[in-house]
Amino acid sequence: MRLALLAACLATPLAAQDTLSLDPPARRLAPENEAERLGAVTSASGGIVRVLDKIIGTVTDLELRTGETAEVGAISVTMGDCRYPTANPAGDAYALVSVRTRADDAAVFEGWLIASAPALSAVDHPRYDVWALRCLGV
């Protein structure tokens, strides 16, 4: 009797696996031109980044043209590029920036800052926070 009960218990998961279907649901894809339109970005002549000195509590907004560098406290910030969504210019900003220490020119951060998601790619410095605000001319 116990052997029959054990066999029935062990066979139950096996039977359940035979009937399981893992077919993904059908997805409706956006037309290619719509996806291209939504993902299209336009380069601006520069951008505005904000620098927070976490020790003193001062905030400095830097208006930088592409290729321009500004110094704030112990760091220098260089604007590589600033792009915004073509379909919604005021909706977001993507700024390619380089943050370096002034004392030894060591790289603190090099990459894209996204205005709508500042924590996504944050500048990791013990004293300064840097984030993108918007592109120029938008």
From TrEMBL:
Extent of the signal sequence: 1-16
Assigned keywords, A-Z: Signal
Protein name: DUF2155 domain-containing protein
Organism this protein belongs to: Rubellimicrobium roseum
Lineage: Bacteria, Pseudomonadati, Pseudomonadota, Alphaproteobacteria, Rhodobacterales
